[in-house]
Specification:
Length: 250
């Protein structure tokens, strides 16, 4: 086992801690800080690694608190405080028509403060591979812009991305016991691929309201097959052909 514990990382120029091509890593009680305005300052970046544990960490950056990318398998994250930053992101995956795989990830007991995203999965059009068996649970959102977001049409480019027929398959996801406030009216966004729709998505006991209580939280679902239990936001049917909506809102 490779341990890293009781460390403080401050103001690294880009990624603060990178775990790459590693097996059996345990990281705990880390304090990671970078300016909120500093781009590409991911707190913990994991790629091509398996059997990784991250516990009891506090991360404040100008980018993802955690970025989980291609080749990650058997990752367990627990007891984290995140914010400011871009939240906890799986991806981006499949850029430049590449193949990417992420499997068996659990994110448990996380508090996010003022982040642009909460639990996020982002993949490019044109890629292939899979992101599957992923759990986000026991999370508290405080003024988070996108508390739950799946974006299979991610495009971080100065020019529009072309429509493509292939995509990284996103499946077998659980969002459970997630509560708090959204900085935007759209608290849940499931923006999935038209050609490779995301499926096997479960929302269980999700209770999100708009910060300040001036309006009800909403959600957008496109090309997503999902079911829900105890979800407090309504997800309209964007396309009756592309969207299978299991369950109805009260």
């Amino acid at each position: 086992m490779v341990p890293m514990t009781n460390k403080e990382v401050v103001n690294s120029q880009q990624i603060q801690i990178s775990v790459e091509d590693c097996t059996d890593v345990k990281m705990s009680r880390l304090s990671i800080t970078a300016p909120e305005t500093a781009p590409n300052t991911d707190g913990i970046h994991i790629t091509c690694s398996r059997d990784v544990q991250v516990t009891d960490c506090t991360i404040k950056t100008g980018d993802d608190c955690m970025s989980i990318e291609d080749g990650t398998k058997n990752l367990h994250v627990k007891n984290m405080v995140c914010g400011p930053g871009h939240g906890i992101s799986i991806g981006s995956l499949g850029d430049h028509n590449s193949e990417a795989h992420v499997n068996n990830v659990t994110v448990d007991n996380v508090r996010l403060y003022g982040t642009t995203n909460g639990a996020r999965i982002k993949t490019w059009q044109g890629g292939k591979g899979s992101a599957k068996n992923i759990v986000f649970q026991n999370m508290v959102m405080d003024n988070v812009w996108n508390p739950i977001i799946i974006d299979q049409n991610y495009c971080d480019s100065s020019t529009p991305c072309k429509q493509q027929k292939s995509a990284v398959e996103v499946s077998n996801l659980l969002f459970k016991n997630i509560r708090g406030t959204s900085a935007s009216e759209e608290a849940i966004v499931l923006h999935c691929s038209n050609s490779v729709p995301c499926h096997g998505i479960t929302l269980e006991n999700v209770n999100l309201t708009v910060k300040g209580g001036s309006s009800n939280a909403k959600s957008t679902c496109q090309n997503a097959e999902w079911k829900k239990s105890g979800v407090s936001v309504h997800c309209p049917v964007v396309s009756k052909i592309d969207l299978e909506l299991v369950g109805t809102s009260d």
